[in-house]
Amino acid sequence: MAKDTPPRWDRRMQQRLARGEAAALGELYDRFASLVHSLAHRVLDDEAAADQVTREVFGYIWENPDAYDPKQGNLRSWVAKLTQRQAVHRLRQAEAEVYEETGEGSAEELEQKVRRASVAARADYIVTSMPAPLRAALELAYFQRRDYRQTAADLGVTEDEARRRLRLGLQLLSTANTRSLEGSPPGYGRTL
């Protein structure tokens, strides 16, 4: 399979959605709802708003199955991008309403808040998308405060392997702050 060819599941799912198969939407929801909700919650820090974004994202997918272009990347990434865009849009709306009501805050503060939330959501997405061995090493080292020797012992790998996993995991995470929302492929950045 060519490097840029999306998995067959993604193509079949898009075709099923385009045919209007309700079961396909249910399957897609089962597979990605927790991702969508957690990303939206990370940006908005509000359970009800995250629920609303989740509904909006899956509603958009149902109504616009052809908006997904398998040539642009995998379905999971596309769904995550839709979610992030919609959550950021909602955050901007909510902050604008607060500003109108109270007069507190500024456009600069809003953009800083949006940027922090977007970076945090991207970092969460990167961690959850990492291969399990990298994720396990990072979780031991950073959440449980293990050094690389303890991480190696806990994982049953050599110290060199533990360092390699930690280094690679951190390299992946470092992209969370460097990739901007504006760098998305055409058609992937529309607000729902």
UniProtKB/TrEMBL annotation:
This is RNA polymerase sigma factor. InterPro entries: RNA_pol_sigma-70-like, RNA_pol_sigma-70_dom, RNA_pol_sigma70_r2, RNA_pol_sigma_r2, RNA_pol_sigma_r3/r4-like, WH-like_DNA-bd_sf. Signal peptide: none annotated. Pfam families: Sigma70_r2. One of its GO terms (biological process) is DNA-templated transcription initiation. Belongs to the sigma-70 factor family. ECF subfamily. Residues 28-95 form the RNA polymerase sigma-70 region domain. GO terms for molecular function: sigma factor activity. NCBIfam families: sigma70-ECF. Keywords: Sigma factor, Transcription, Transcription regulation.
